[in-house]
Amino acid sequence: MLWVSLLLFAFLLLLPSRVRVQGRVTARREETFPGRPGTARLALELMAPVPVYYRVECAGVAALGLLPRQYLGFGMGRVRLVEELTLSPRRRGAHALPRVRVFVRDVFGVWEREVPTAVIQGQVRVYPRVYPVPRPDLALTLLAEGPEVRGVGLEDPTQFRGVRPYAPGDPVRHVHWRATARAGTLMVREFGRVRATGIWVHLDTSGTGAVYLDHAAELAASLLVRANEERLLVALSAPGGMVPLARGDEAVRRALGVLAELEAEAAPRPVPIPPPGVNLVILTQHAPVAVVDGALKARSRAARVHLIALPEGFYLRPGERGRPLFGKPDAVLRLLKKRAVLEQEGVFVHLLRGDDALARLSG
């Protein structure tokens, strides 16, 4: 019977190599922002013809705040493993969910080997951080297709809404004299307000590094989200894609997707010339000649052009504190020399130094 025992031993020793594994790693929310917790689901199915010990290794993903971990078990036949993974996204980008490796060991614990796996890995797209940011002054244009808004906007004389008591700052031409006589107090006409202008953000990433890319992406995302909250048209041109002028959350979502994967370029790309009435905002670090010239050309059609330069490649995020910076890089000196001329031509220059907060944009 010795040969039978040896055959059984060989059978139990070698057959674990026939184990097959399939499954998937998926995120419950495939689009998110840094610092927003989330979860992913690891679902595996092992097909083991003989009893085996198994060890599942789940790699870590630093950008998603996921640490390496492993799961141990024993089973035979069809074995299912389902685990929840906690995600804490840290950096923008399209990040693959963790790679999974499976190892099996025979019941005698003699030989451990890795088995083939057919595990589908999902991904999580992490958008840039978004801050409450003051937008640069925009030139508002009155167009028939503009949506009606409350508060700030341009009055549409075709949309008469009624009369109301006078408030300081109301134009004298809006005084409704008949209503004033009836009420015994000053009354004014009230009209609907529309906001039909747009904001087009263009990013220059030529010769830049990771720090500038992150800060520029966050500033661009914040400006677009703010514009969308005000029901403005939004557009984006940057390495990795262009989002044409549109209004609504879907346009912003597409723009955030481009900004999530923003990368540097060797040379500046042409500055777009937006449709008439649209405001152009250009983000740059070194303000190369091609970008400055492009801003001047765009001004021929754009309602207003804002050139925002980040000489050090960063600014103070909300809550950050920095040390005063002394001296000016060559790019800043060149831009300051041209500032007066540029602003005479309708190109407004903003310098966000490394010790400046985003509130500087309101100036």
Automatic annotation (TrEMBL):
Domain DUF58: 163-261
Any Pfam family: DUF58
InterPro entries, A to Z: DUF58
Protein name: DUF58 domain-containing protein
Native source organism of the sequence: Marinithermus hydrothermalis (strain DSM 14884 / JCM 11576 / T1)
